[in-house]
């Protein structure tokens, strides 16, 4: 059987977690990734920060290229002017590549150009294009872009740092976007990123999020394996057949 396309696989897994790697023990990253694989996590989230769109700087293409194994690579670009940069991230094996609506004057063109690129891991897998919205950006900004994306991600914190608290008004935004996506003919995933914990993941999944990013609540320095299993089991009770 040919490999499931990335979008179809993510839809079948929904709701599921995409685990933020930057809060892992980066000096033991290989064993942290094995730990995630053991629990059944299928998607790894990489936060790319450029020191410009957000104050911090994190990792770039070589780091992402070094990530090997079966986890889908969900690359969240918090970078200004991604137009000239996305090709490098695709070349290093992103399966999902998310850009911010606030990050480029020509965001539609960025998405169009991503639409012409192929998944470097396996062209048959397809590349999932995501658009992310900061908490202060009206969801109406999505409407002209929906023909060019396979995923919409709502930031539930202001981007730039892990370990922040979930902004409660995100629930109303999830509801609005869920309705907007239901009206589309194409399948578009709904992601939520930031402030997800063991205490709120069930509510976020029940609200309609498909891909739920969680970082510091998994890699809490105490029980990452147990945390990841808890998140997956909680969401499996909400499983929505594709
Ligand atoms: C925010 C990032 C998030 C964040 C997730 O800038 O996009 O992915 O690091 O971390 P937690 O789960 O700790 O909020
Ligand atoms: Zn992120």
What is the N-to-C succession of helices and strands?
HEHEHEHEHEEHEHEH
Q: How are the strands of the biggest sheet laid out side by side? A: 1-2-3-4-5-6-7-8
| Name of the CATH first level | Alpha Beta
Bound molecules: D-xylitol-5-phosphate, zinc ion
Percent range for helical residues? Answer: 25-40%
Summarize the main sheet.
Answer: 8 strands, parallel, barrel
In whole angstroms, the N-to-C terminal distance is 18 Å
CATH superfamily: Aldolase class I
Strand tally:
8
Describe the structure.
The chain is an alpha/beta fold. It has a single domain, classed as TIM Barrel (Alpha-Beta Barrel). Helices cover 30% and strands 18% of the residues. The protein has helices at 6-13, 29-39, 61-66, 86-91, 107-115, 170-182, 201-206, 224-236, and strands at 16-20, 43-49, 72-78, 96-100, 128-133, 151-155, 189-193, 211-214. Helix 2 links the parallel strand 1 and strand 2 (43-49). The two termini are 18 Å apart. The structure holds D-xylitol-5-phosphate and zinc ion. The site of D-xylitol-5-phosphate has 21 residues, from strand 2 and strand 8.
List keywords for this structure.
binds D-xylitol-5-phosphate, TIM Barrel, single chain, binds zinc ion, eight-stranded parallel barrel, 242 residues, alpha/beta
Secondary-structure topology with pairs:
Blueprint: H1 6-13, E1 16-20, H2 29-39, E2 43-49, H3 61-66, E3 72-78, H4 86-91, E4 96-100, H5 107-115, E5 128-133, E6 151-155, H6 170-182, E7 189-193, H7 201-206, E8 211-214, H8 224-236
Helix pairs in contact: 2-8
The protein binds D-xylitol-5-phosphate (DX5) and zinc ion (ZN).
